[in-house]
Amino acid sequence: MHRRTLDSYARSSAAGGVSIAHQHQANFRRIEALSAILGKAVDGQSLGCPGWAQAVKRLESGASDGVVVYRLGQLIQDPDAGRLLADLARAGFAVYDSDAEIDLVIERNRDDDDDAVKDAEDYAPAHSTPVRRGDARRGRPPVNTYLCTGRESPVRCGNCGHHLDINTNARGKTYSDGVLKHHYRCLKTTGGCGKTIADWRVLDEIIEDIMLRWLSDPSVLEILREVQETRNMERQPLLKEIADRERRKAHWGALFNDGEITESELTHNLRELNAAIKAAQSKLGEIESVPLSTIDAEAIAQILEEWQNADSETKRADLHRAWEGFHVLVDPGSSTDDKDAVRRRVHRPRRIAEPVRPIGD
Ligand SMILES: [Zn+2]
To answer: Which residues surround ligand 1, an ion (CB under 5 A)?
Structure first.
């Protein structure tokens, strides 16, 4: 069995003046109770300090699978700390409490990340201030407020092609409106290359620009129609072949029922026909596993019309619809790059020509 590596985090600001050594002792006990291996004992002052940044770095680099924090429940009462920790949990990192009272652990459900994320939100302190722009209503999966995250997203890492995740600024830096800074990242923990992609708000703005311009371009619809037609032409002969063989199967069955052929003749004929049907179906499956845009002029018009007033969840859905069957690669770069610099790292939408690998691969 794979044993996880958990770091121990102790802070000088812990309430009650509990010594660092004592905090680590409590954390070590929890790590043992979790049947995990101790990675590193990290000391800091508070969340956002260099010690904490080190713990976060170890998580992001894959050096540790999680961290045990002394009296996490106490720490989480602070809205900023709670938000920071919930964000970490959302990004897939396990944050345990030394006392096992409140753990921020999302069991990653491969088929339904949104529900898992909703669970994490429930851990956030009730009095935490809204951190995200738009309509981050309670109970709504917060991941929806980020335009470019997620395995279904057309926006991908330009280095390895993996989907993007979001991280908070470990030192607690904020935008001018006081919202905690976030950046997109290709996470190692979910199978990516671990590189930073770009600042959250900067990339969202750019992707929005590019998508709206792309949809407004009449030649785009033409290309999509062509692709849809080509797909149809590839499918038709196979569908015909399958239908044809099914008819012949029925024919042989009728002959057998009428006593015109023996059972062994029937079995022989059916075996051949079934093999041919299976081969055609597998070819069909191959063709259909390459994602295809199903968007039409009407859907494009709808997206363009609703976009400005759409909530973030709708925007995410629209983005996926707009670039269904396409990838938009963003080369990794600094989270402090400005809009021009990030834009230069965003590639043109590219059609996915390869079958999509099954989820979790
Ligand atoms: Zn990557």
So the answer is: 157, 159-160, 162, 186, 192-193
**Do residues 340 and 353 both lie within one domain?**
yes
pLDDT tens for 61-84 read 677 888 999 888 778 777 777 777
Distance from residue 54's CA to the centre of ligand 1 (Å): 21
Whether 297 and 217 map to the same domain: the answer is yes
Ligand 1 centre and the CA of 187: distance in Å?
7
Q: Does residue 265 register a pLDDT over 90?
A: yes
pLDDT per position as a tens digit, 17-38: 888 999 999 999 999 888 888 9
The reply to whether 135 falls in a domain is: no
Query: What 3 state SS string does the chain have?
Result: CCCCEEEEEEECCCHHHCCHHHHHHHHHHHHHHCCCEEEEEEEECCCCCHHHHHHHHHHHHCCCCEEEECCHHHHCCCHHHHHHHHHHHHCCCEEEECCCCCCECCCCCCCCHHHHHHHHHHHCCCCCCCCCCCCCCCCCCHHHHCCCECCCCCEEECCCCCEEEEEECCCCCECCCCCECEEEECCHHHCCCCCEEEEHHHHHHHHHHHHHHHHHCHHHHHHHHHHHHHHHHHHHHHHHHHHHHHHHHHHHHHHHHCCCCCHHHHHHHHHHHHHHHHHHHHHHHHHHCCCCCCCCHHHHHHHHHHHHHCCHHHHHHHHHHHCCCEEEEECCCCCCCCHHHHHCCECCCEECCCCCCCCCC
Both 75 and 194 in one domain: the answer is no
Q: How far is the CA of 164 from the centre of ligand 1 (A)?
A: 8
The more confident residue out of 234 and 61 is 234
Ligand 1 centroid to 31 CA: how many Å? 30
Question: Are 243 and 355 in a shared domain?
Answer: no
Are 241 and 228 found together in one domain? no
Judgement on whether residues 20 and 166 belong to the same structural domain of the protein: no
Provide the residue range defining the domain that includes 281.
234-288
Distance (Å) from CA 71 to ligand 1 centroid = 34
Residue 250 lies in a domain: yes
In the chain, how many domains are there? Answer: 3
Q: Do 316 and 283 share a domain, yes or no? A: no
The pLDDT confidence band at residue 357, using thresholds 50, 70 and 90, is: low
Q: Say yes or no: 4 and 103 in one domain.
A: yes
